[in-house]
Each structure stands twice: as structure tokens, then as C-alpha cells.
Amino acid sequence: IDTTLLGCTHYPLLSPLIQQELGANVQLVDSASTCAEQVKVILEQHQLLSPILQGEHQYFVSDDPEKFRSLGERLFGNSLKSVEL
Fold it and tell me: In this structure, which long-range contacts are made by residues 46-51, counting pairs with CB atoms below 8 Å and at least 24 apart in sequence?
């Protein structure tokens, strides 16, 4: 294996451990950050990119909403009010 694609949005949180286990000769490709970079380019092209986070944030998850809320609040440093299954 020379390249591993991280195909889920939560894998980047584990990328240091994954890289350690796979070794330095294996390149990790992070699909989450690649996707986010492309979204930014499209928003900039259409002049829709806003430097200010505003509005209400809603999170929809396919796993345990309370588990996501707990982890999300620790990662983002603020309260996640709307988390739904």
C-alpha cells in the first residue's frame, strides 16, 4: 500500500494514529479536507463565502446524537444546541 484514502469525515481526527500504524511510506489522502477546500473554491467563485459565522447551526447524525453532542462540544469549544438523529 502506498496511499490510503480516508473516506469518512471522522477519520481525519484519527489520521495521526492511522499514519503511525501504516508507517511513513504510506500517504494519507483526507477526503473531508479535500471536499471542504473544493466547497470553499466554489463559494468564492460565486461570491458566497462569508467570513462571519452566523445563523443557527443544526447537526444531523447517523449515530447517537448525545455522543456527537458531547464530542462536538469538546472539539468546538461551545454548546451544540440542535443535534438530531
Answer: none
Residue 15 C-alpha cell reads as 489520521
Give CA–CA dist 35/41, Å, rounded: 10
50 contacts: CB under 8 Å, gap ≥ 6: none
Instruction: Give the tens place of pLDDT for each residue, 14-59.
Output: 889 999 999 999 999 988 778 888 999 999 999 998 877 677 889 9
Identify any residues that bridge with 60 across adjacent strands, giving them in sequence order.
Answer: 84
Quote the cell numbers at residue 29. 489522502
- The residue type of 73 is E
Q: What angle do CA 25, 31, 34 make, to 5 degrees?
A: 105
User: What values do phi and psi take at 8, rounded to 5?
Assistant: -135, 150
